[in-house]
From TrEMBL:
Protein source organism: Streptomyces dangxiongensis
SUPFAM superfamilies associated with the record: Homeodomain-like (SSF46689), Tetracyclin repressor-like, C-terminal domain (SSF48498)
Keyword tRNA processing tagged: no
Keyword Transcription tagged: yes
Keywords: DNA-binding, Transcription, Transcription regulation
The name this protein goes by in its record: TetR/AcrR family transcriptional regulator
Length: 204
C-alpha cells in the first residue's frame, strides 16, 4: 500500500519544488511561523495548494525540507558529500573554529527564522521533532563525536570519556542560549565553552 502522506520526489517539478522552498522560508522570515499558511506558500510560489499537499502533509514538513535544502543537506537519493571537523592536532582550536562557524550560521537571518520555527514546532509535533533531530541534528553531533574519538586515539582525551556525552558540554549550552535568548552569541562565548569543557572549572 502506498503511503500517500510521504513526498514523491520522483514526480516533483524541480522548479516548483525550489519555488515552494523559497516561499516557505521567505514567509517564515517575514510573518513568522504561526501566520505562515500552505495557502500563502502556494500563492508566493505560484503553484496550487493541492500541489503542496500532494508532496508534503503539512507546512511544517515543507519548512523542514526547505531548511535542510538551505543548510546544504543532500536531496533524497543524492550522493552525500563527506564532511568532518578538521583535525589539525589541536582539539581546542578545531572545536573553537567549528563553533564559531555555528555562531555565524545561527545569527544568519536566512537560517534563524526557520531554525527557531522548526525548533518550536518540534516541541509540540513529535514526528516533526524526531525528523528534525534525525535529519539535521544527529549528523552534526556525529561530527563532534568523531572528532573527540580522534582526540582519544591521539591521547588528548581520556579513554573512558563518552564522546556523545562530552560533546554536550559545549553544544548544549550554545543551543540553550540561542533558543532561550539568555545571552548574546559570540566567538568569545563559544571559545570559553570549549575551554571550560576541555579543562574544567576547578582551580589549576
Amino acid at each position: 500500500m502506498v503511503d500517500k502522506s510521504a513526498p514523491d520526489a520522483a514526480r516533483r517539478s524541480e522548479k516548483s519544488r525550489r519555488a515552494i522552498h523559497a516561499a516557505a522560508l521567505a514567509l517564515v522570515g517575514e510573518v513568522g511561523y504561526p501566520r505562515t499558511t500552505v495557502e500563502a506558500i502556494a500563492a508566493r510560489a505560484g503553484v496550487g495548494k493541492q500541489t503542496i499537499y500532494r508532496w508534503w502533509p503539512s507546512k511544517a514538513d515543507v519548512l523542514l525540507e526547505a531548511f535542510l535544502d538551505l543548510a546544504g543537506q543532500p536531496a533524497p537519493g543524492a550522493a552525500e558529500q563527506p564532511y568532518a571537523i578538521p583535525d589539525t592536532g589541536d582539539l581546542a582550536a578545531d572545536l573553537k573554529a567549528v563553533l564559531r562557524a555555528t555562531v555565524d550560521e545561527l545569527l544568519d537571518p536566512r537560517f534563524e527564522a526557520p531554525s527557531r520555527a522548526l525548533a518550536a514546532e518540534g516541541l509540540i509535533n513529535e514526528q516533526l521533532g524526531r525528523e528534525f533531530v534525525t535529519k539535521l541534528l544527529e549528523p552534526q553531533l556525529r561530527l563532534y563525536a568523531d572528532r573527540l574519538r580522534s582526540a582519544q586515539d591521539a591521547g588528548a582525551v581520556r579513554a573512558d570519556v563518552d564522546p556523545r556525552i562530552a560533546l554536550e558540554l559545549f553544544v548544549s549550552p550554545l543551543a540553550q542560549r540561542w533558543l532561550q535568548r539568555t545571552g548574546p552569541l559570540s566567538y568569545a562565548y563559544t571559545d570559553t565553552l570549549v575551554e571550560y569543557a576541555l579543562h574544567g572549572i576547578a582551580p589549576r
